[in-house]
Amino acid sequence: MTQITYPSEVVPGPPRLALDMPEGWVQVWAPDTLIAIRDAAEGADHFLANVVVRFYQRLAPFGPDEIHAELSEYVAQRRKGQVGVLKHQEVDGREFVGADLAFVDGEAGTVGQVHWFTAQRTNDVLDVIQVTGSYAGARRDPDYGTIDRIVDSLRINP
């Protein structure tokens, strides 16, 4: 009998990841994430900025059209959801596609998010890394730049 292991050449699993966490932030556990960090401000009266990194596998195709469709579906399920135009950036030599979006949450008020996706083919599937930064809509100016610096620090298979 042959023994099968995980990870394997057929199913390699998530890659190693590294990112820079700002001072005043903490790492937390969040379901279905590889990394989750958030602002650790004590006694804050607003939604705390956070960044999560997820990994999943998809069959092709998975490109800008599919990303925009998925984000549009995501905001359509939220109150006053809006998704912006797609944008592109390179981080550590990898092409990322993303978009900004916003919606109204019953407890947090307006929440802004930036979603970034990068994919790499492994065998017959695409390994997808999704980075999502969230912030209180009223705190876009101070929090968006911090989230952007975190995303720019991401290293896949460092």
Structural description of this entry:
The structure is a single chain. The protein is of the alpha+beta class. The protein has a single domain (17-156), classed as Protein Transport Mog1p, Chain A. Helix content is 17%, strand content 44%. The protein has helices at 64-76, 140-153; strands spanning 17-18, 25-27, 35-39, 50-58, 79-83, 87-91, 94-105, 109-122, 125-136, 155-156. The N and C termini lie far apart (36 Å).
Q: Which architecture name does CATH use?
A: 3-Layer(aba) Sandwich
Q: Give the SSE string.
A: EEEEHEEEEEHE
Structural class: alpha+beta
Strand-residue proportion: 35-45%
Helix content: 10-25%
- Ranges where pLDDT stays below 50 over 5 or more residues in a row are none
Number of domains: 1
First CA to last CA: what distance? 36 Å
**What is the total tally of β strands?**
10
Mean pLDDT: 93
CATH fold annotation: Protein Transport Mog1p, Chain A
Largest sheet: 8 strands, antiparallel
Radius of gyration: 17 Å
Overall 3D form: globular
Query: Given this structure, which CATH class is correct?
Result: Alpha Beta
User: Helical element count?
Assistant: 2
CATH-assigned homologous superfamily: Mog1/PsbP, alpha/beta/alpha sandwich
